[in-house]
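Hi R.,

Here's the chain you asked about this morning:
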Amino acid sequence: MLEQADVADICIIDPPAHAADRSDPGGAMAQYLMRHGTKSEVAVLAKTEPHVGDILLRRAKEVGAQMIVSGAYGHSRLREAVFGGATRCLLETADLPILMSR
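And here is the predicted structure, written out as tokens:
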């Protein structure tokens, strides 16, 4: 599917300042996609909204994405109930197809 895409937009939201890839967040993923024939662009975004899912949906709309490909990660039931999560937000509010993997 990704090989047929014109471009894959890799979104990194508030990367940790002390991460191993701090000078090139998303670079390894872009390189992996390139090796498999997919052109990609990396967007490092600030967490400007309470939910990461909302940021991803806004970005998808800005770039005219046809699909969101995302990992799916769950937290404890208490944390999910109080804070929600990106996965839940995407599933509940997305107006375009989402491909998730856990």
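One quick note: Residues 8 and 40 are 4 Å apart (CA to CA).

Cheers,
M.
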